[in-house]
Amino acid sequence: MSDVTVSQTQQALKKSKLQIALRKPGFVIGAIIIGLSAMLAIAPGVFAPYDPNLISYLEVKQPPSWAHPFGTDMLGRDSLSRVIWAYTVNMQMAILATVFAMSFGVFVGALVGYYRGIADQIFGRLVDAIITFPFLVLVIAVVAVLGPGLVNMYIAISVVGWVYYARLTRAEVIAQMGNDYASAGVVMGYSDRRIIFRHLLPNAITPVIVYWMTDMALAILLGSSLGYLGLGAQPPQAEWGVLIAEGRNFITTAWWLSLMPGIAIVITGLGFSLIGDGLADLLRPRT
Amino acid sequence: MTSTVMEIKDLALEFKVSRSIVDVIRRRPGKVVRALNGVSLHMEKGETLGVVGESGCGKSTLARCIVRLYEPNRGKIKFRNQDIFAADFRNDRSYNKRVQMMFQDPYSSLNPRMTAGQIITEALSVHEMRPPAEIPARMAELLDLVRLSQDAAEKLPHEFSGGQRQRIAIARALAVEPEVLIADELVSALDVSVQAQVVNLLLELQERLNLTIMFVAHDLRLVRHVSNRVAVIYLGRIVEIGDSESLFSNPAHPYSQALLSAAPSVDPDDTSGAIRLEGELPSPLNVPPGCAFHVRCPYKTENCTRDIPVLRLIENMGEVACHNAEEIAKNA
Lengths: 287, 332
Known about the structure:
The complex is a heterodimer of chains A (287) and B (332).
Chain A: H1 2-14, H2 17-22, H3 25-42, H4 44-47, H5 79-96, H6 99-115, H7 117-132, H8 135-146, H9 150-177, H10 180-187, H11 192-204, H12 206-229, H13 240-248, H14 256-283
Helix pairs in contact in A: 3-5, 3-14, 5-12, 6-9, 7-9, 8-9, 9-11, 9-12, 10-11, 12-13, 12-14, 13-14
Chain B: E1 4-16, H1 21-25, E2 32-44, E3 48-52, H2 59-66, E4 74-79, E5 82-83, H3 94-98, E6 99-102, H4 116-126, H5 135-145, H6 162-175, E7 180-184, H7 192-209, E8 212-216, H8 220-226, E9 229-234, E10 237-243, H9 244-249, H10 254-262, E11 312-313, E12 319-320, H11 325-331
Parallel strand pairs in B: 3-8, 3-9, 6-7, 7-8
Antiparallel strand pairs in B: 1-2, 1-4, 4-5, 9-10, 10-12, 11-12
């Protein structure tokens, strides 16, 4: 009996982290959602039944049917095709609005967390100043200065968003420095660069990656919000925020125009959140 | 023939306690924790110097100063006559190669994301201890030296026991072929049976590699077992330092006497009870004037509350920092 238990335990220990993750339903569902979303984003033409910009005045504002599962809009364009084509823009937002903020934020956060001192003091005040404002308000202000459009929107989100990554990384690096392996690095005579990037960051990065997943969901929300407000993607480009804005005037008569892109936002956001949740368990080092 | 490897003179380290805004407004002076209060000692080539004392007395702080993790406010540490905090030597990494440290907590002293092999290889390659082609062989040799099997190289720290982790830490320290090892409570986190393994391994390696070791611990029996000389620290100051056997069998300072009598004896005929000290260890925030021990000392005289006793050599004993050491010895 005990032999059986021991060998079972050993087997369980040998199971890779991926196998453990695959048993978590949340992570699996999230991975499926994001996998499908990525496919739609990469090759929308393969999946969309119609040309998203094909105007047909004979089929204006048709309710969902077998021919047009998501109905048609005020210009007779197929809603399903437009929602699918929007995946390209919106998934791109999830990445482009976050990677620069993350890279820069992690870099700055690791440095100020490691060196502390006057740079850390200045950083602290800067963070306080930026997070005092609601995120959206600040982004809108930056977009207002730069002018509307996707590229300017990415710049605006990155300019504000890096602060959150930096703050998180700084706190994690400081916490990791309490461990003796950081002191051991100093005693071993390793360079600061090696201690920060080879020792501290790999141990500090997990919450940052989890936050990144959540942030990608937020970036999609924010991007669509700006699209809705006319500050992000510009019509006639298919983008979920733009699609919702287009349907807004017909919300009582053609509800599907705003509802379908809204559902796409919710599902994609959920997918990123579920993956982030699963990654939190997956990446945690064992001690 | 002995030669002095490490010489520490009048080392003092204070940590400032951060002042609250109320303190600043009321102009209250900032408080300081006096972790070290003028420690002087030396280490000879090939010896083991035990450092004992209650928790919070500054043992670990002393160890961390020696490896330059802390910078003292006052005093000097000289390694082979080189001031290790001198401006032109402060960033000299060759010092780290020659003086290494092992830490107390085996669960935090190894990077959890690096395998044992990577940890040792990193030390070898950063300091270019061997040509790159020979590094894997040297890594295997080091694992062998600390009696870990070769498949340990592929494992992450969480797959090892506490004793095995400490041996990885020893291998990492030995990778750079140091002359001096600082063992800060090396085995206090381990089971007693494992303690013996690790300590005996350390002693064996010391003999083979002619290492000088500072063994910081609070386990007195262990210190007696490993040390040639022992220093007793009380509130950041050495109260007695001397030959291990004579200090343990015949302690001169009243604090050493109390500390040693507190260690449980394995002799069933030993009926001498522990000396009870009155009061508690004073806070290092507020070190008593004169002899820091006078508030708890059963032999205190008026002089003790006024003058700080200095370490002085007393016949048939080691160096003792007590005004009344001779009197106490006579009456004992």
